[in-house]
Amino acid sequence: DNASGISVIIELARHLKEAGLKNNNYLFIAFSGEELGLYGSNYFVKNATLDLKKMNYMINYDMVGRLDSATNKLVINGVGTSPSWKILPTIGTENSLVIKTSESGIGPSDHTSFYLNDIPAIHLFTGAHNDYHKPSDDEHKINYEGLLKVFNLSKSIVQALDEEKKLTFTKTKDEETQAPKFTVGLGVIPDYLFDGRGMRIDGIRDGKTASKAGMEVGDIVVQMGDLEVKDMMSYMKALSQYKKGDTCKVKVQRKKDFLDFQVQF
Fold first, then answer.
1. Is the CB of residue 149 less than 8 Å from the CB of residue 95?
2. What pLDDT is recorded for position 182?
3. DSSP 206
4. Nearest to 167 by CA among 123, 113, 111, 118
5. What does the angle CA 117 – CA 182 – CA 264 come to, to the nearest 5 degrees?
6. 125-138, pLDDT tens digit by residue?
7. Spatial separation of the C-alpha atoms in residues 42 and 63, rounded to whole Å
């Protein structure tokens, strides 16, 4: 998306060449075709250049260049894929990061291909933003100090795991596989780092449903029609009830106020 993940693995390769860690070998690889269906990583695990049964773990960097300096919050998905990932919150604190975790090994990025082959795998992510998938997601918007924190965290993780034996793999409750399908949307970018109740809007696409209705960045969707929105899963469930052309009342929290918007998909 903005090459932030690539920059981390290049620097990590440079570091590990000199680090003198002896208990693991390290393979650095960049996959293409992720958003078409994990094409690159899926091909790799099916045609691997090494024995997958000997592969210890996988760390996936997908969008790590836009850390919010106000919160220093980093999402790490897939922590349920091994008990060894319990070290992550502590290592995060040591590197001035607040770690938000999710258990599932299934998610919309390349760690999924490794998890499905019984390899402990995590995905590091600094969150979506309004420049996502746009040419405006340019170099000058990268948070370099934040990127350095992600890099230092990575060094700490690799160092800690080099002192362990082979990681134990565990299956996770894969919420993503149970996600409802939907054909309409509000035209917003959710705040995936939001810990509160509801779905917080982190970005709004011009001319789309939420924009036309008058919603704003920072609004928290708490209800759609008759369904309460508690989190991302219930938000997707609510969307799945509608099709193109339908209308719906959406309740949002804006600071201390609650506002109702009539939207048409």
1. yes
2. 81
3. T
4. 118
5. 155
6. 998 888 877 889 89
7. 19
- CA 30 from chain centre, in angstroms, equals 17
State the CB neighbour count (10 A cutoff) for residue 193: 19
Report pLDDT for 177: 52
Between CA 34 and CA 41 the distance in angstroms is 7
**Residue 140 CB neighbours (<10 A):** 4
Q: How many CB atoms lie within 10 A of CB 66?
A: 21
In terms of residues, how long is the chain?
A: 265
What predicted TM-score, i.e. pTM, was given to this entire model?
0.77
The pLDDT of residue 175: 58
Contact 110, 31 (CB under 8 A): yes
Q: Is the pLDDT of residue 172 over 80?
A: yes
Tokens 């996502």 identify what position? 132
- CB of 76 closer than 8 Å to CB of 51: no
pLDDT tier for residue 173 given thresholds of 50, 70 and 90: confident
Q: Which residues pair with 261 in a beta bridge?
A: 250
Q: What are phi and psi of 158, to 5 degrees?
A: -60, -40
What Å distances lie between residue 114 and 9, 41, 129, CA to CA?
17, 8, 27
d(C-alpha 145, C-alpha 247), whole Å: 44
Q: Given the DSSP bridges, would you call strands 58-61 and 121-125 parallel, antiparallel or unpaired?
A: parallel
| First CA to last CA distance, the chain | 28
What DSSP letter does each residue of 107-157 carry, written as one string?
-SSTHHHHHTTT--EEEEE----TTTTSTTS-GGG--HHHHHHHHHHHHHH
CA atoms of 168 and 232, how far apart (whole Å): 29
